[in-house]
Amino acid sequence: MILTDLLSERGWLLADGATGTALFNMGLQAGDPPELWNDDRPGDIRALYRGSVEAGADLFLTNSFGGNAARLKLHDAQDRVRALNRAAAALAREVADAAGRPVVVAGSMGPTGEIMEPVGALSHAEAVEMFHEQAEGLKEGGADVLWLETISAEEEYRAAAEAAKLAGMPWCGTMSFDTAGRTMMGVTADRLPRLAARLDHPPVAVGANCGVGASDLVRTVLGMAGQNDIPLIAKGNAGIPKYVDGHIHYDGTPALMAEYAVMARNAGASIIGGCCGTTPTHLREMRAALEATPKGPPPTLDEVAAKLGGFSSEADGTGGAAPARRRGRRRG
Ligand SMILES: [Zn+2]
Fold first, then answer.
1. 300, burial (CB in 10 Å: exposed 0-12, middle 13-18, buried 19+)
2. Which residues lie near ion ligand 1 (Cβ < 5 Å)?
């Protein structure tokens, strides 16, 4: 499999940055489903993908984060799941194959947006079916690997694993640790690699994406490291979102993201990219820093805070009781 081959050959891989941020810059309106652009504006989606590849990414995610039936139903497009995912992956395949070097196409699958049983109404079987439908479309389009991201519930992670097995696809899966070091549904960083390893169809890599800021993300990687041998993924936001002149702006500079990339690798991650706010300009500096800097020892929390800024919460969520759950979803 191209992802594991590349990883063992190179030791680390650069993943891509933000999808949403790039599409908003191309004119996507807040609330519109980006997946429709796979059919309506394929040139823009190719440009999105090429932006990552030309900045040096070894792996990029398809424009299919919200491409499951539950999410597309909000736009009356639930009958287009398979076709939109196939198109997302086919455009990506085209760009990856033209790169002139090995580039991995990762088929993005985000949360269903629904709460699963026993807390909510979505059953395990329904969630598996939704992810499976999406996975088959991504597979048909030519994705190398499925890429589950921004998950907060263990139940949803399990359902996606089962769907990947049904589709006969390798997969990676990241959660979003955005609630005082835990996911919104209470999963801790140290728990994720352990629960992943016990799955019937374990992921080839696990990790964290989105969340709060670059410093929290590195703290989460430190919490995941050393649990077992599953490769770790770090996809942190480019700083903290700020509302400036009527739009959301992420305050992380390319230089900060370069520091973050080196620290994430020292903390134990081997697949390193960005999430919201991370542009090709950030990716270029991350790539240059990773190439110029040999891997060092894991940073201390003081070093992380000194270089990347303070943490959003005092503890990393691994000790004591879970903080109160809060509502709200964000895009990958
Ligand atoms: Zn994000």
1. exposed
2. 210, 275-276
